[in-house]
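FW: tagging you since you asked about this chain on Friday. Here's the raw sequence from the shared folder, copied in full. Didn't touch anything.
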Amino acid sequence: MSIAVLVSGCAVGAPQREPDPLPTIEIPEFDGTQLPSGAAMNTEAPDADPQQADVFSLKVGDCLNDTAGIFIEDVPLVDCAAEHDLEVFDEFSTSTGAFDPIALGDEADAGCTARFESFIGISYDASTLDVVSYKPTAESWMTGDRLISCMVEDPSVKTVGSLRGAAR
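HL: got it, structure written out here
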């Protein structure tokens, strides 16, 4: 039995030359403390332990875990990079002239859902996310509280990071 090996190269009319050597690229050794951009790497885990805060101290961008109850005084704030239930995405003052819990609820629902799209990126009706609001109570109303805080949550799972621009 014989095996024939055919090696072929076509160089019709042009002499063959050695290819140019590939350029050498030096890659610095990664020491675990630098990113390619030169920024320092954050090696600390986000603080997932809730810090109790007065409900009146809430501000847009805060993240918190849900609380049970109708009357809320303290809220469990957490780092938004850690798992959380709610994110404050807007707040506004009520236009209701007298304390009326039904009117406040209606205004909170309408106001928060109207502001939802500019934060999430799609309308509330098209979204899978929910809106929760904190409204003045009769007691806080007497002290001048008129603030409605709008929060967003994913009812199916805890959120890590912000829902800004989530478009879902």
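FW: The two ends are 69 Å apart (CA to CA).
HL: agreed, and Residues 1-17, 35-43 have pLDDT under 50 and may be disordered.
FW: great, closing this out.
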